[in-house]
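FAQ: What does a ligand-bound record look like?

Like this one, built around uracil:
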Amino acid sequence: MRTEYLAALGIPVWVLRDSSGSGAAAPIEAGEDGDEPKHATEAATWEDLADAVQGCKLCALHRGRTRTVFGVGDRSAELLVIGEAPGADEDRQGEPFVGRAGQLLNAMLAAIRLTREDVYIANILKCRPPSNRDPKPEEAEACTPYLERQIALIRPKAILAVGRIAAQWLLQSDEPIGRLRATIHSYGNPGIPLVASYHPAYLLRSPRAKAKAWEDLVLVRQLLRDTS
Ligand code: URA
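The answer part, i.e. the structure of the complex:
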């Protein structure tokens, strides 16, 4: 009944697909001990940047990681999706948003006729925090130059920040996600339009919030259309 109601409102109901379609990332070789980590700003190319991330020891999270999670998707994408940090599945596979939240993210993208391959997906942190705790400010600070370099290389038309942590960090705000969403913000200089929305993991726990997330996705879709 609820499904019919949402459909009548034009709100897609995101149903989890099975996980077989997510695809694992290519294996990454471990960085050599003793390598000095390069600074992100020295990384002229994607390959340099990926190498720098792979060997990064700028914060304590490198000690607990299985793999770094660099980012995935189209390196010339119009839309950049930014989440918080890798979870257990992502740490194992070296790819962002491959767990249940990732399946829902795929469905959210499908609702605006995009696939995972059409966009670029990254996180504030490239390494998993222990027990999925929130990133510490010093961890986010150490990792941000990598994300900034990715943004400079991609030059997306719009950014979708999913979840409170990503939205607050990118916008340097303490406002709750409920107040940051549903608005077009500007990130960086020159400003890239940024929409904040709920994290798919939150939507899995609170499916009623999907209607609001859908409104945010419509904003993203409009942004991509307006700027094309
Ligand atoms: N949650 C995130 O914010 N990022 C991931 O890559 C996975 C789960």
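Follow-up question: can I read anything off the structure? Yes, for example: The pocket of uracil is lined by residues 83-87, 90, 96-97, 101, 123, 163 (CB under 6 Å).
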